[in-house]
Amino acid sequence: MSPASTVLIAFAMSTDAFAAAIGKGAALHRPHWREALRTGLVFGVIEGLTPVVGWALGVAAAPYVEAWDHWIAFALLGALGLHMIRAGLAHDAAAAAPAERPQSHSLRRLAVTGFATSIDAMAIGVGIALIDADIVVTAAAIGVTTLVMVTLGVMLGRVLGSLVGRRAEVAGGLVLIGIGSAILWQHLSAP
Hints:
The chain is mainly α.
């Protein structure tokens, strides 16, 4: 696999995590670089490991991963998105001020979101096993690109969060549902 292909795969695998990070950043009260980097590290490590898992599954698991990855991602992202929407609407109902938004997300919530946005990277790992490409280079590129994109996404979400106020968490939930729906649509409409 060429270096250009590796870079393109890394960017493609990080785009859904980037969109989710914008929602995460928007839902927080003025996230700092430390929180953005923490989020980026969690997403980057998970996004870097899932292709390795897919690669390890190899040819034997390819039909299973390809058959269900989109449904798993859709269900996880949809559930997280609905949870964020419910939480955002609960804040609206209580007339919560933007200052009452959390300073950080729990590690568990970050890990679940990171896993949900990285399911497709597992299928990439299976594909890499089939073409006998270097999984270490590809997984490292995906992980580092995701770390950078998610860190920047959280900080971009900080700016957007101050613009959308209390509705930031609802918007983040809608983004997650949109990502899950796009993943499902892409896989179901593929020839």
